[in-house]
Fold these 2 entries.
Entry 1:
Amino acid sequence: MGDYYPADFAARYRAAGYWTDETFARFLPDAAARFGDAEALVGTDHAGERVRLSYRDLDAAAARTATTLREAGIVAGDRVIVQFPNITDYVTALFGVFRLGAVPVFALPAHRRSEISHFAEVSGAKAYLTVGVHARFDHRQLAREVVRQHPLTVLVADPDPQEFTALAPGREPTGPADPDPEDLAFLQLSGGTTGMSKLIPRTHADYLYSVRESAAICGLGPDTRMLVVLPAAHNFPMSSPGILGVLHAGGTVVLGPDPSPSAAFALIESEQITATALVPPLAMLWLRSRPLIDADLSSLQVLQVGGAKFPEEAARRVRDELGCSLQQVFGMAEGLVNYTRADDPEELVLTSQGRPISPDDEVRVVDDGGAPVPEGEPGHLLTRGPYTIRGYLGGVDAESFDTEGFYRTGDIVRRLPTGHLVVEGRAKDQINRGGEKIAAEEVENHLVAHPDVVDAALIAVPDSLLGERSCAVVLATDPPTAAGLREFLTARGVAAYKVPDRFEFVAEYPTTGVGKISRRELRRRLGDALAIADES
Ligand code: AMP
Ligand code: DBH
C-alpha cells in the first residue's frame, strides 16, 4: 500500500466512502460493461482520420495498445511520459498505460527538451509515448534529443516512427492489472512555483473520488457531450469533470485539436456539444468572436471557465452572448477543486470561483503569520482533504506543506459565508499566462545561463487578453538583444509559452530588506513605465 496519506486520514476517507476499490486499470473495462455500445470518444487520430469509438471499442483499443506497450518492455509500476495533442491516440495510449498498472507522467504538447528531460529525470521514467509531427514540430526529433541523456523507450503514434517503436494497437488484448487503489496512479504536473514543475503523485482512490464527485456536481450523464479543446492532459480538462468525468458517467468526449472559435463553434454545432471548458483568455476570445461566426450553439448548456481568474465583466456576458450558463472552476493539480453549482444564485456564479467538492475538504484562510483571518477577509489559502496531496514526489517540502499537512496553495482568497471562495491574487512567484503557469525561477535560471546576463527577474505584467504576460527584467554587462535572448532560450529547449513576452534591460534591481530582488517594486516600476509608454 502506498504511504501517500497518514493512516488515520486514509481510514477516515475509506470509512466515509470517498475512497473505494476502483482503479484506473479497470476504469475502461468497467465503463465498457456499463455503457457498451454508447459513443465514448470522437475525434481525429494521428493520421487526421475521423474516429468514433463506443465504450466497447475504446476498451478494446486500449487493451490492444497495452499489448504493444508490454511487448516494448513496460511493466506495472513503470513511469511513462505521455505527450500528445488532442487526438484519439492519446486516450487509447493513456488507458493502455493504466491497464498495465504503469504510471503516466502527464506532459503537455508545448513541453520541449528542457521539460521532458526534467520529467524523465525526476520520475525515473522508462518510456516516452508521443506523436510524429504536430503543429509543425517533430516530436521524434525531441525524443532523439532527450534519449541522448535519458535512456527512454520511445513509442511514436505515427506510421513512420523512425528509429523508435510504432505506437499502435497490438493483435491481442492484454487484461487489466490489479494495482492497489491507494497506490500511485499517475504523476501530474504542478504549474511550478519555485522552479521547474514539481511532480504530483495522485493515487487511484483519491483521484477517482474527485472524478466521481465532479461528474455528479456537474450533472453529467449518458446525454453529456463534452468538447475538449484545452490540452487534454491538463488537470482541468482531464478531471474537473473533464474526460474522466464524462467517461465515468457514460457520456461522449469530443476531442477538439483546435480551440479557435471557428473550429470549436463548428464542432459544437455538428457534434451537438452540451458542455465545454476554457481558460479565461479563450472564453474572452469566444465572446468576442461570437457575432462574427455563423454557427448554431443552441446545444451548449454549460461553459466552464477556470485555470485563472475570469474577470467579472466577461462572466456577465456569457449567458446572453453564448446562450449557455457559466460554471466557474478553481482547481489545482495538487488537489482541491471548487465549482460554482447549477443552483447557486446568479451573483455567486458571476463573482466567486465556487466551493469545494467535498464536505471533508478543509480550507483555512490565514494571514502572513499563519493566523486565521476573519471570514470574508483576504488571506492565504491552505487546504487538506481526501484528494489533496500531502507532498510532492521526492519528499518533504516545508515550504509547500505546513506541519499539519495542509497544502499552501499560494493563492490569496476570501471565503464567503456560503463557503464559496473568491480568488484575489497569488502570493507565489508564478505567472499565469492565460492559464499557462510559468515558474519565474525556472525561466530566470535559463536566462542567467547566458554569458552576458548577470541576473534576471521574470515578472507578470497585466494583459487585457491573457490576464498576465511575462516580462524578463535583465541585468547584463553587455546587453544582448531581446531577439538574441529569445533565440537562446529556444535553443535551450524552453517551451515557447515560457519565453518572455517582453524584455527590459536594467543596470540594477530594487531590493528588499534582506537583499532579495523586490518583484513587487519591479512590477510597480514597470507598471509606471508601461503607463508612461501608453501616454506618449
Ligand atoms: P496548477 O498548479 O497548474 O495546477 O495551477 C493551479 C493554480 O491555478 C491555482 O493555485 C490558482 O493560482 C490558479 N487557478 C486555477 N483556477 C483558477 C480560477 N478559477 N481563478 C483564479 N485562479 C485559478
Ligand atoms: O489551473 C488548474 O490547475 C485547474 C483549474 C481548474 C485545475 O487543476 C482543475 C480545475 O482541476
Entry 2:
Amino acid sequence: MQNKIKEIEEQIALAVKEVKSSRNLQEIKMRFLGKTGVISSLMKNLRDVAPEERPSMGKLLNALRQWSEEKFDAIEERLKDAELKKKIAEEKIDVTMPGKVRENGSYHPNTLIRNELVSVFAGMGFEIFEGPEIENDYYNFTALNTPADHPARDMQDTFYISDKFLLRTQTSAGQIRVMENKKPPIKILSPGKVYRSDDDATHSPMFSQMEGLVVDRGITLCDLKGMLDEFARKIFGESVKTRLRPSYFPFTEPSVEVDVSCFECGGKGCRLCKGTGWIEVLGAGMVNRHVLEGCNVDPDIYSGFAFGMGIERIAMLKYGINNMKLLFEGDTRFLKQFRG
Ligand code: DAH
C-alpha cells in the first residue's frame, strides 16, 4: 500500500507537469480525486489492510489526498491566470485600425424612374392599379381588340403558359380589369413587369411598363396631348416639347407614337436623338370603341385615352445608359452611381 501511495504521488507529479489547460487539469483531477478516482478506490481498499496498519495507512492516504488537492488548486490558479491574460491580450482593441465601412444601399434606376413617374401622375390625380403578371389571353389580347387571328398578336413575341394563360406582354391588360370593375370617371396608372421573347442591347425578356388610362365624358386627344406635355416637362425638363405621330395599336383609334424634343441637344440633332431632334418615348391613343363596348362602357357617352411606356427605356434615356443589360445584372459598381 505504501508503495502504491508513493507511485500515485509520482504519477500526479508527472501528469501535472504536462498539463496544458484548465480543462485538461480538471480531467486529471477527476482521474485521481473523483468519486471513482484512483485515490478513492485506494481508500476503499483500506478495508483489506491489516487492522494494525490501517490507521497509519489512512493517515498517509489522507495526506496524499490533501497534498494533491493543494497541488491541483495551485496549478489551477496559475492556469486560469495565464488563460485570462491570454484572452485579454487577444481581445485587445486596436483603436487605430480603420473602421468597417457599411455601405448604404440605393434605389435601382428603374425604381427611381417608376417612383418619379408615379409621383408626376399622382399629382395629376391618377390612382395606381397593379394587375397580375400571369394573365389570361382574354385580358392581354382579345379584350384589347386583338382576337386570336389578329396580325397585331405578332407585334409581341408571347410566352404562353397554356392555351389560355400567358405572361402578360403589356400592362394594357390592366385597362380591361379596371374598366370591368369601375365605372367612369376612371384615371388609373398601372406599373408592372411584362414579358416578351426578345433579347438584345435594348430589349430584355422581362421589362417594366407604365400604363395610363383615362375614361370620362368628353375626353379628347387634346387632353392626352396636354397631359403628355406636363409629363414630358416634369420628367425630361421644362423646355421639352412633345409631338404625336400617327401609329397603330389595336386597342386605340386613332393611335399615336409620342416623341419628346431631344433634351440632350435641345432639338438640334445629336447622337442620342440620332440627328433627328426627337426621341420616341411612348405609345398612346384614344381608347378604341370596341374596347369600351367589351367592358360595358357606352362609347357614345364616354371616351378615353390610354398610354403605355417602357420604364427601362425612360431610365436609359434619362441616365444615358446604353445597354439594357446593365439594368438587370445588379452590378453594384453600376448601381452605386444612382446613390442619392
Ligand atoms: N401596349 C403597347 C405596347 O406594349 C403600348 C401602348 C400603346 C399602350 C398605346 C397604350 C396605348 O395604352 O394606348 O407596345
